[in-house]
Each structure stands twice: as C-alpha cells, then as structure tokens.
Amino acid sequence: MAQVFIPVQWRDLTGGVAEVTLPGATLREIAAALEARFPGIQARLLDDGAIASGLAVSIDGAVTSRGLRATVPADCEVHFLPAIGGG
Amino acid sequence: MGKTSDKKQKYKVIGTRPIRHDGADKVTGRAIYGSDLRLSGTVFGRILRSPHAHAKIKHIDTSAAEKLPGVLAVATAHDFPDLKDKIANLGEGSVNLAHLGANALAHGKALYKGHAVAAVAAVNQHVAEEAANLIKVDYEVLPSVTWVLDAMRDDAPLLHEDVRTNSMGKKGDKPTNIATHIHFETGDVDQAFAAADLVIEREFRTASVHQGYIEPHVCTALWNQDGHLTLWTSTQGSFTARAQTAELLQIPVSQVTVVPCEIGGGFGGKIAVYLEPVAAMLSRKCGRPVKMVMTREEVFEGTGPTPGSFMRVKLAATKEGKLTAGLAWLAYDAGAFPGGMIGPGCMCVFSCYEFPNARVDGYDVLDNKPKTQAYRAPGATQAAFACESVIDEMAERLGICPIEFRLKNAAKEGTRRVDGPTYPRIGFIETLEAAKNSDHWKTPIGGPNRGRGIASGYWFNIGLKSCAAANVNPDGTVSLIEGSTDIGGTRTSIAMQLAETLGISAEAVKPRVADTDGVGYTDVTGGSRTTFATGMAAHEVGLDIQKQMAERAAHLWECDPSKVECVDGAYKSNGKSMTFTELAGKLGETGGPVVGRASVDPQGSSNGFGTHIVDVEVDPETAKVTILRYTAIQDVGTAIHPSYVEGQMQGGAVQGIGWALNEEYVFDDKGRMQNPNYLDYRMPTALDVPMIDTIIVEVFNPAHPYGVRGVGETPIVAPPAAIANAIYHATGQRMGELPISPPRLWAAMAKK
To answer: What ipTM does the predicted assembly reach?
Structure first.
C-alpha cells in the first residue's frame, strides 16, 4: 500500500481529502486506484495515456522518469509535483 | 579554500587536483569551438528579427532577397512542418513543439523584439545580412507587455488566444497570459499567523537577467545529399539538440547526428535549440553546409533570459525564534511561450527550513520577452532573494544571530518540504556550522558604511540518463567515451571516478565527448547532474572492466575468476600479482580487447545546500556597492576535483553578484530592450569582485558510489539575498528590488 498525497489543486475532486492509502505495485495501478476512488482525477494526471507534461511524480522522494510503469514499493510515499529542469 | 568532511572512505584519485585533460587544448587555443569550424563549401546564414515586441505578421515577401546575387536559400516558418501542440519528451522535461518551432521562426505573430521571422543563406555574411534586410515583412503592431504583474491583468495584451491557465491539470475557461498556477499548502496557515509573536510581510521584484555566456549561439548544419543531417553546435545536450531538431523537421533521430563542439558557457541557456533547425532547413534548401553565428545583440534579444519576477513573502515566528508559518505568492514571467521557472521557484522558496504551516502560490506568466530559459538553479535565486531577506529581518527583529536563527529552523533529514516530499540525508546544517566557524564570520567587519550579510540557498540537483564506455589500451591507459558535453571540467571529474574505480591514475584515463552516433543516449549537461550521473556511469564502466580484467588474469593463471581479487588496482591470486598496466599488456593473448560499458538512470535529487557570507561597503555619495569579502560554503557530498568544485562555487557566486547589483534587461515603453550589449548590460568582471573564498562541506550522499552531490547550480541561489542583507547592515535600507544598482540604491538612501 502506498501513501498517496493529493495536490491541493486536485482536492476539489477528493472532497478535501489530502492523503490516501492505496494499493498498487506500479504507478499505473495507483492512478487507476485513484480514479476509482476519486473519479476525474486521471484527467488531471494523465495526458494521452501518459503522465501529463508539466507534471512529475515523486516516489519516496525520488522523481521517477519511468512514467506509469514506475514501481511503487510497499509503504512508500507518492507525490505529484510540477516538473522541473535544471540549468 | 577550506574543507570540512564526514567522509570515512579514503580515495587515491578522488579529492586530488590533476591537470584537466582538455587543459592544453584550451590554453593553446586549439580546442574546437563552433565558430572555429570551416567545412568545405560553407555558406552563411542570417536571421531577420522582429523590430516589434508584439505584432501580427500579415505577409512576408522574400522575393527581393531571393534575387540578390549570392543568395542561396531563404526560409520562413512556412517551410517547416505544422506541429500544432505536439508534446515531445526531451529527457529533462517535455516541450511543446509548436512553441519550440515558433520560437525558432515566428508563426503568424512576433512575440518579442528580436523574435526570428525569416532566414537566408548566402555566400558570405555580408550578402546574407544584405539579403535579410531585403525581406519585407508586413506587420500589424500590437500592444505589448513586459512586466509580469501588468501581463496578469484581465485587460493585458494577450500573447496566445489559446492559452488557458493550467492548475495541475485543471484548465481555465478563458484566454489569459497566466499559463500555469501552482498551489502548495500544508498545515493551518491562517491560524499560525494569527498566533505568531512576529509576522513580517515584504514584496520583492527582480529584473530579467541573461545567462551571459561568453560564446554566442553558433551552429553549422550540413544536410547531405543522402538525406542525413549533421549539426556541429554549441549545446548543453547533443542528444536533446538532436531530438528537438528531428522533431521540428519531422525526421527520424537516426537521420540526425549532433557533434557537440567545445562550449563557451551555457548555464541553462543552451538546452533549447534556436539556430539548429533553421540552419538545417537552409542547408536542405541549398545543399551546402550552412553556418550561423549570433551577434551579442541577437543573444540578448533572441535567446532566453531568466524570469523577471514579483514576489510577496510573509513569515511568522515565535519570540524564541521558531518559524511557525510561511506564505509566498510568486509571479514569474515565462516570456513569449509557456513553461517558465515557476515550478522550481515554488518548490524552493521555503526549501531551507521547517515550516509546519505554509502556503505557496505561483504563476507562470506570458509576456513580450524572449522565452525564458533555465539559468543555474532556475527559479530558486529569485525565491531565495525574497525568503532570505525576510529571514534576515526576522532574525534581527528577534535579536537572534542570523546563523543561529537559521540553525533553529534548518531543514534536515526527514523534513517535509511544502510541496510534499521529505529530505533524505542532507547537509544544510553543516553549511551553517561551517559558516559560523569560518574565519570570515569570526572576523569583525569594522569601518563606516560597511555591512555583512548572510543567506542560504537550495537546489535539487538531478540524476537522469547517462551512458559511457571505455577501452583498455595495451599500455595500461583507458580511453573513456562519454556523452555529456563538457562545460565545467566534467571530462576530468568523470575520468577521475573511472580511475578511482580501476585503481589507476587520472592521467591514465583519456576522456572524450562523443557525438550522438558515438555513445549511448545521455541527457543534458544541466541540473548539476553530470559529475553525479555520468560519474556514476563511469564507476559502473570501471566495475565492468574490473570484472573482465579479473577473468583475463584468471585465464593467464589458469584459475577460476572467483579466485582473483582486485586490490588497489592490482589483480592477485594465490601469491601471484599483476598491475593493471601489466595485465593490459597481455589482453591480446587472453581473448582480445576489454571494453567496459554502462547505462544509468538514477532517479531523484542529490539536494545541494549552500550558505554565503558577504561584506560590502556602500559609497554614501554614489551608492556604489563594493564587495569587500565573500565566502561561499556548500555541501557538495564529495568533491571529486576540489579545484573544479571551488570554480563552480566561485563562478556561481560571481554570477549572483551580477544579478544582485547590476544586471537587468532595460525595456522602453514599446517593449524593446535598450541595453543588448556587454557595455550597457553590466556583468561583473575580475575587477569588480574580490577573491571568492570557498569552504567545501562534504556530507556523503548515500545515493552515489562516491557520495557525489551536484555542485554547479546551488552557488547562484544565495548571493542576491546575502548582498541585500549586507547592504541593509551597511545602510539601514532594506532593498526589495534587483538589481540593487547605484541609481536604485541611491534613490532609496536619499528617501530615507
């Protein structure tokens, strides 16, 4: 089970819920579980079946470049963040 | 130069200061930069740029230019494929190809003064320039906007009719210049402010500043008759340049080879392509190599500065000096196309401290400036200027030493950032302790009109993809091939990690940066990632070679490879021993060459914290600020080559000094930059700054085999805030606007 932190700007879809514990071994499964619990959330997260441009996903503090196939370890934290690049 | 370290491991190569591998070429002028390249039959390209900050392009007439003798090709946006809103993933981030293409050559509208509109290729630069001037463009001039708050107004001139505010995937319903809204919140902010003993709220403004690399953008393109495109260019990422160019031309990446030339600085500004697709199109049309070099004016007006900004920061604390709440409202300009630096700005503004309650709102705002690009810790410097100025004021109001105040609130392992993730082992506290114990801090400043300031800063430092390969030569040297373009001496810092792994000298590794056909995919040299990630690849190459060398030794000694051990670079088994060099000389009789290879993709950040101390003297008559003494302190994990680390810290500090005191884009009321040259855009020179002292702090990064963290970006984050704080202590004047140039400071001092 992963502890998933809901961005403030998505909480209009979660009734204000800020954190949920969800099953899922991959980010794809987490995304599906999120959508099942909070319909409409995938439209914010995904674009054309992939993580939307401009978004990044942090799994236990590490932003993943593996997209929806990223492994989600048990008892980890998942955060949705703005994507960044460096100089 | 000082150093503090918690490093337990002892290294033979890492931590030493060998002469850089490219040193002889650089000091003798033999290194090949883009401008040095002269292919047989080369012709020269020139770009016509918009004289208007905002204008509809009604018609482009290229007929007169095409008829000029010596003109070989003319190109406009109509020559390129239509890429309406196609998003491409470019490794370090994704990009809207329609915007990228429209930035290279304007589609329908010129969005800033200097926006490329058309291009020509001709037999020489003079004919090319004359031909460019013969192109007639029928413009309908539109109102323009260059200040971020003006651009956010409902009645502001709209740059793009189709832009809607993106709020983490939720789209707005009306046209706007606000491309993105980011919002973070934790705890009960309003209650925390209401209960605080001290609340301070201040506003801040920063001007657009340029990365200021010495070498202008330069590219030579050859679209060969077989359809293959080769680009020789100055870029921070050859593979990213290949991907962007291939996407804009809609050709396969296998049809493009990018040869990275030596690079005279990038700092984030040489990641996006500008000239490459245009030179390629011109070459395709004329069948000749096309060389294009920007003038300094074109660099300023046509390539990315970093965002100008407006920020409001409000902090709350107890009288004992514990921060209880933070609120930040940040608006950064994105320039002509969406996708500025507001994300990292929002993530960095409170990243140095523990805030139980915090709220951050950030806005990415379109205006009529060149599309902003990354610049060393993009977005973090502006945010730190705001936050660290208020931190300093809070410490003073509470009567607490500014270092002690920071120590009371410093982020550490387990601290949860306002954007959510928690830190692993980090070294911020160690930088503050090093500052407190430094000779600089312990030495009284003394004298009239003088003040000391301190500030801290954070940058993520990223991982991403890197490849490397190496061949063992019969003389015991190793030829290393890597894909990271070398901006700051990374050939050597990467080679040293391979040398350390193999137990050979740094000089015994011969590093070479390969083109995109010569090495596996490697992400940009940016994000302070290269010594970290490509160094990690070099380490894995070393392990691969070591395993194969042990097998060769086992073959010679007719024993099982598991019986061979490698100790300090020597291979040993059952009383027998061979050095790496001896064994390398016998590869021919044990199965042929040994080649090591590695591909890595480390995830996550290596988290760099720095603390800077600066002494200034302010001339009470002219308000000129003189930097008297400067010390940059930074946790770098492990300093592979301390001289290069010190150089990065010094370079970042000096760029930050320029940002703080002088550098700014000055626009007239029609959105035209008034100072696009190094005489009027005032960057610091060696005459303007003292020796920048450095203290390297080494808190081992467990996510890297040698404990490396990124280095290059963090040093630019703290300087403007540290200098502003020093100026306050010298003059009693809190400055909320960058640059703190003499006229601005003089006006503030006169008002007081």
So the answer is: 0.96
